[in-house]
Amino acid sequence: MPGAGQVFSPPIKNVDEPVTCCDWRPMGEGDASRALIQTVGGRSACGCRFPWRRGGLAASMEPGLVGPGPYRATRLWNEIIELFRAGMPLRKHRCRFKSYERCFKASEAVDCLHELLGSNQNFGPEVTRSQTVKLLKKFLKNHVIEDIKGRWGKEDFQDDGHLYRFPPSSPLKPYPKKPSFGKEVIKFPDWNDPKAGTSEERIPVKSIMMNSEMWYKRHSIAIGEVPACKLVFRRELTQENIEEIWKSMTLSRLQKVLGLDCLDEVIDTKLVNSKHIVQNAYNVNKQGIVTLEDKSKDLPHWILSAMKCLANWPICSDLKQPTYSGFERDVFKTIVDYFGQMKEPLLTFNFFDVFVSVLGLLQKHSEAIEALQISCLLLPPENRRKLQLLVRMMARISFNKDLPPLSESVRTRVLMVQAFSRCILCSKDEMDLDELLAAKLVSFLMDNHQEILSVPSSLKSSIEEHVVHVQRVQIKYAGADTNATFPAPSFCHQISTDEFEYQRATGSQEPLAALLEEIATNKEISVKDKKKKLKQFQKSYPEVYRVRFPTPETEAVLFPEKSKQKPPLLMWALRKPFQPFQRTRSFRM
Q1: Is the pTM here over 0.70, yes or no?
Q2: What are phi and psi of 19, to 5 degrees?
Q3: Are 486 and 404 in contact (CB under 8 A)?
Q4: Of 144, 152, 14, which is closest to residue 84 (Cα–Cα)?
Q5: CATH topology for 72-172?
Q6: What angle do helix axes 106-118 and 72-87 make, rounded to 10 degrees?
Q7: Omega into 380 within 30° of 0, i.e. cis?
Q8: pLDDT, position 290
Q9: Strands 99-105 and 146-147
Q10: Contact, 189 vs 248, CB < 8 A?
Q11: What angle, rounded to 10 degrees, do the helices at 72-87 and 434-447 form?
Q12: Which CATH class is domain 241-463?
């Protein structure tokens, strides 16, 4: 055991050798800040995790970008705690004539964590000092840090000289148990199943056979395979069917953009309301803002007037209010208070993980835009409308040079993010970096609100085309499953060319043989046409033809020879003998 006043530090080992929490050696007080930085990557034998490697504080503050996926907020929370514990310098401090080992001042913690977050790719330099203080308050509430007397949870953290320390244990947030689901695509509904109380016989399915005339018209040049088929008349899709199509295809597209094996990792698809998606896509005005059927869910008139006032400043269309000094700040405070009292953020608690996952795509601008477009379609229409109006107002205020400053110390853009980020995105869980994540998302929303809050045209057109396709009459071939709107993906293996040719030949033998028999037995066509068709069939499918007509005799049965009768001699030809040609007077010169 080290003596009093000595600081514990792990000895430096090989980079591939794990560190044990008990491998401590005494070191000087001045080296305390490097004690946890110069550890190696991996996990110790006792289970403590050291994800950083040697290379100093800067190296430990530059982890890779955490991409979209399940539990992204939890991963970021744990990563920041580990990096903060590794990078925070610890040394001896005196407080009220008493010395405390391995502790730090509150202001030092703010400096360290602010630098760490600013250099982290997942947050960036936009993080403010006030946001850092809020995060440290969360750390104190969740026992990531404690004061020098061991108190935590109820103490309020301030940016001052109070002393704090790390507890012996590392309170990382546990990962939820992963649901037991396989890697499967979105299950699409089958609208062709008969409803309850109906039988398959009621579905109008008409069997058709191709006669020789139809065959000749379609195969006048080359004969193709004509398998047995049925004409399937689709039922009319109900509004509920169309809404389910929208939900299925929208979630499938979102899963593809996020690059996930299953959307259940980030969202409970049962909570997605298909009616909301359709209403958000079609019930919009000329500006693309959602219109509500239930006006009671809309913003109050006085809030809409206040938002229009600041968005269109100094031109206020329907307002005749006094313009005293500070009037615009009072209007802004009224708007902030209204949105601040909402019980649930506009992006809802249920979709928190979805939007946090989208933040992992911000470096891929086009993909992030599409992911946010689709994610915002899932919102309740009243939430989407409020979000559209609020973000549009925030963007206009940020770029309005005619509007007086709304704060003495904070720039207008930063003020917009600080004032409304929490009412747009936040988590139910206290152990989350929702303030930092919300600020990053809101900044991106303000810069790209016209694209993000519009209906994705490519998705809308593809769904509409699919709905039209489903309502068309379909031809169902033997062995093909055309009832499923989206057939499940099938897995196949490669076969040889000889086996393919054999399957192709044997698979079409029966329908081709039936077609040949129909041509042979059809008495309505002339002998000349029948011979022509048979000759063409023999040229295209010699194997099938050889089975039906193995010898020329079997083919000749179709065309029995008729007895040839000599025409009777004319009587006048016998009475008058043949006279040689003689010149007449008309030929004389």
Answers
A1: no
A2: -100, 135
A3: no
A4: 144
A5: Arc Repressor Mutant, subunit A (1.10.10)
A6: 130
A7: no
A8: 95
A9: unpaired
A10: yes
A11: 120
A12: mainly alpha
